[in-house]
Design goal:
Largest sheet: 8 strands, parallel
Shape: globular
Helix content: 25-40%
Structural class: alpha/beta
Oligomer: single chain
């Protein structure tokens, strides 16, 4: 069994055939999917998707692109309050994106800090997005961890070795998407080989970033099997070991989620 630890099943890309997308994932051996919140204004739709399928969970949070536009992005009480639902198992995605800067750096930082506080207060893991902001991400994670227990992962990892090592030192997990299969991702592959097996996760970030051999198509959770198989070959192990380890890691980190009965 595999877990897609990060997808966006609520996005319009899947609206016309969401049942079929979930069915294909199940047929591909994907036992659990985590659909990720990017806007509080659309969180009800995210939660509804999770409620519809036994094997789908969700998070609550505001993507850094939306940090300056979404009401509640910096409201710890609101973020924490929305985690009381049984299917909400994490905080995010949150973080810093200084590549596009659709929201100001100040708004992104304030929202990230609020999400980190909500994660500490609820005990749920935080899902971190980092682009062109590795040093500041580590700075804020270290500050937050110094104020209390903090768990989480760097999702869709494309950062530096320093970010990977710093996150691992904090007890975080590192998740790889289809980007690791891309031709020009040599540096990323070297980092992927070095992440300890007990801290490794896989994801699609669907509908984006379909892995080779599906590159150019709309991504979907079933395709996480290709990323997992690629990582197995890269690391000199078997797909079964990657599947077993990444699945165990997911349920260790997202401990509120229930493991499938079979």
């Amino acid at each position: 069994m595999l877990v897609d630890s990060h997808c966006h099943l609520d996005f319009p890309d899947f609206a016309a055939e969401r049942d079929a997308v979930v069915a294909r994932a199940r047929n591909a051996g994907i036992g659990t999917m985590l659909t990720i919140s990017t806007k509080l204004s659309e969180f009800d739709r995210v939660r509804e998707v999770a409620d519809t399928y036994d094997d789908v969970y969700c998070t609550v949070g505001v993507h850094p692109h939306e940090a300056g536009r979404e009401e509640g992005a910096k409201d710890v009480t609101r973020l924490a309050g929305l985690t009381h639902h049984a299917k909400v198992i994490g905080i995010g995605e949150t973080g810093l994106d200084y590549y596009y800067q659709h929201s100001s750096r100040d708004d992104q930082r304030a929202a990230f800090e609020a999400h980190l506080t909500a994660a500490r207060e609820t005990g749920l893991p935080v899902v971190v997005h980092s682009r062109n902001a590795d040093g500041e991400i580590l700075e804020l994670l270290r500050l937050a961890a110094g104020e209390g227990a903090l768990r989480g992962l760097i999702h869709c990892f494309t950062g530096t070795r320093a970010l990977a090592e710093g996150a691992l030192e904090l007890g975080f997990y590192v998740s790889f998407s289809g980007i690791v299969t891309f031709k020009n991702a040599e540096e990323l592959r070297e980092i992927a080989k070095s992440v300890p097996l007990d801290r490794l996760l896989v994801e699609t970030d669907a509908p984006y970033l379909a892995p080779v051999p599906k590159r150019g198509q709309r991504n979907e959770p079933a395709f996480v099997a290709h990323t997992a198989a690629f990582l197995a070959e890269l690391r000199g192990t078997t797909p079964e070991e990657i599947a077993g380890s990444t699945t165990a890691n997911f349920f260790r980190l997202f401990s509120k989620a229930e493991k499938p009965k079979s």
